[in-house]
């Protein structure tokens, strides 16, 4: 099995930088629809995040800011800060914030998530929000969890909404197990294009990512000192992960049969304890 090249993080950064303009122009992300007021975050995320007015939210691995800006637009009074290691993503996010008139309440910072606590104000956020294709790009979940905890005020919470590792262990061509759920080696992929535009012509295709079992995520959060409030699983995903998933016409890709399903997304809320320590 392939191991990660020494410069895997820089390769990933080049991969993402090249895809930002493709994503901004894509029907998948539908920036014009977002500007016109379409929702970007999932209804279950809005419900599970709860009321966010007058709070401070950090969005880790924010891409070009659609989710960050959507949450800020949805919750008047919410202050949002997005962080991403792609300078192209941060530039596009700042431009979009100006375009939708939210740059007074939403800013974007360029940098690596593993250094988040030194790039953003530590212990100053009520909420850390992340996910939907974020954790797979990291190989140090303990460091990630510690970074997220360090950003939060005591009593603040992390909300993670992520693609389920079970989904990534399924075969692309048929609804059976096709890969090892417990694999520790990364996927080293060189596929051209993007999930948002499969026909896009791209040059920086090397991408290195990991499938983190649920137990690894929970262990990292508990080890950092989080108290987990809930953990939920969902039977659909947001892109064409496998060719046999069925598009329901509302941006959700579902199992062909309702009587035989496995989870394709999950969410959790985890608190930084309010007391000392
Ligand atoms: C799939 S996107 C995040 C999902 C987002 N919800 C979306 O679809 O718009 C993954 C993001 O993670 C960022 N990223 C990957 N590794 C990172 C790292 N080590 N530090 C900061 N950002 C990183 C990429 O630049 C990319 O914008």
Describe the structure.
The mean pLDDT is 96. The protein is an alpha/beta fold and 277 residues long. It has one domain (8-271): 3-Layer(aba) Sandwich (Rossmann fold). The protein is built from 9 helices and 12 strands. The termini are far apart. The chain is globular. Bound molecules: S-adenosylmethionine.
TL;DR of this structure?
The protein is an alpha/beta fold. It has helices spanning 8-24, 31-35, 43-49, 66-74, 87-99, 116-119, 141-151, 165-168, 214-224; strands at 56-60, 79-84, 106-110, 125-131, 152-163, 187-189, 207-209, 227-234, 236-237, 246-247, 253-254, 265-271. The structure holds S-adenosylmethionine.
**What's the total number of strands?**
12
Strand content: 15-25%
User: In which order are the strands of the major sheet placed?
Assistant: 3-2-1-4-5-12-8
Q: What is the CATH class name?
A: Alpha Beta
Count of alpha/pi helices: 9
What is the H/E string?
HHHEHEHEHEHEHEEHEEEEE
Which small-molecule species are bound to the chains here? S-adenosylmethionine
What is the molecular shape?
Answer: globular
Mean pLDDT: 96
What fraction, in percent, of the residue positions are helical?
25-40%
Cα gyration radius (Å): 18 Å
The major beta sheet can be summarized as: 7 strands, mixed
């Amino acid at each position: 099995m392939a191991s990660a090249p020494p410069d895997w993080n820089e390769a990933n950064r080049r991969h993402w930088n090249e895809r930002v303009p493709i994503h901004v122009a894509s029907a998948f992300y539908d920036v014009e629809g977002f500007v016109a007021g379409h929702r970007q975050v999932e209804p279950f995320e809005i419900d599970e995040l709860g009321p966010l007015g007058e709070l401070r939210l950090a969005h880790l691995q924010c891409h070009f800011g659609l989710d960050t800006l959507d949450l800020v637009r949805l919750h008047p009074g919410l202050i949002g800060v997005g962080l991403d290691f792609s300078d192209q993503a941060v530039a596009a996010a700042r431009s979009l914030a100006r375009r939708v008139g939210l740059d007074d309440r939403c800013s974007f910072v360029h940098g690596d998530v593993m250094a988040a606590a030194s790039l953003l104000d530590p212990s100053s956020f009520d909420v850390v929000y992340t996910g939907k294709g974020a954790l797979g790009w990291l190989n140090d979940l303990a460091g990630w969890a510690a970074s997220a905890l360090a950003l939060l005020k005591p009593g603040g919470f992390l909300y993670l909404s992520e693609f389920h590792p079970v989904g990534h262990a399924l075969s692309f061509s048929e609804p059976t197990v096709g890969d090892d759920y417990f694999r520790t080696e990364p996927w080293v992929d060189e596929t051209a294009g993007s999930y948002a535009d499969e026909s896009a012509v791209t040059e920086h295709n090397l991408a290195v990512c990991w499938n983190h079992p649920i137990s690894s995520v929970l262990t990292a959060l508990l080890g950092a000192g989080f108290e987990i409030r809930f953990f939920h699983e969902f039977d659909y995903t947001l892109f064409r992960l496998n060719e046999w998933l069925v598009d329901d016409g509302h941006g959700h890709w579902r199992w062909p049969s309702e009587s035989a399903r496995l989870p394709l997304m999950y969410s959790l809320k985890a608190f930084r304890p309010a007391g000392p320590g």
